[in-house]
Design goal:
The longest helix is centred in the first third of the chain and has 44 residues. This protein is about 35% helix and about 15% strand. It is built from four helices and six strands, in the order H-H-H-E-E-H-E-E-E-E.
């Protein structure tokens, strides 16, 4: 004769397994949401750091610009943003802007040869299309247009967002790497 106690012997382990599965799903979803929130804030900080550094870095020095991108990504050397292997220096777009007489910001059609040439251009015509007045940094996905960054989830069944909002910072151009007494551009 089977007693009710022997019939329920395996029920507790099955209930525990089901509840534990739901608990792990909740914990991993919470971790994924925390990672996405970190990345949401981190891309804003990366754009801010890059814009501030680009405002004082020589735009004609490619090594300095590469180092600027690495430092902006919270790295000392090459690599991606922490916790985001798909966000690297290739996603940091630095654009130099000029301001027309109406006050609209537009991308420079062609960069000056060096920071000294920019200072000369700005002294001649502050609203000219060859005077860098602002620096805009955006973190963009691949492609010609600036698409939102895609984030690969750690767990494919996670319900966390898979794209981050555009991170854009505009900073006034400062020295752009010019130092007093600098030799004229080649």
């Amino acid at each position: 004769m089977i007693t009710s106690r022997s019939r329920q012997r395996g029920t507790a382990s099955i209930e525990f397994g089901l509840v534990f599965l739901l608990f792990l799903t909740f914990v991993f979803s919470l971790i994924e949401y925390a990672r996405v929130m970190f990345l949401w804030n981190a891309v804003q900080e990366v754009s801010r750091r890059a814009a501030r550094a680009a405002a004082v870095t020589d735009f004609s020095d490619s090594a300095a610009m590469d180092a600027l991108r690495q430092r902006a990504l919270l790295r000392g050397g090459p690599g991606a943003l922490p916790l985001a292997p798909d966000i690297g220096s290739a996603q940091i777009r630095i654009e130099y802007l000029w301001m027309d007489a109406a006050g609209a910001l537009q991308v420079l059609p062609q960069l000056p040869a060096c920071p000294l040439a920019n200072r000369i251009n700005c002294a001649r015509d502050p609203q000219g299309a060859s005077c860098i007045r602002f620096v805009r940094v955006r973190l963009c996905g691949p492609g010609a247009s600036c698409a939102p960054l895609a984030v690969a989830p750690l767990a494919p069944w996670s319900l966390a967002p898979t794209t981050l909002p555009l991170a854009t910072t505009v900073a006034p151009a400062e020295s752009l790497g010019y130092t007093p007494g600098q030799a004229p551009c080649p």
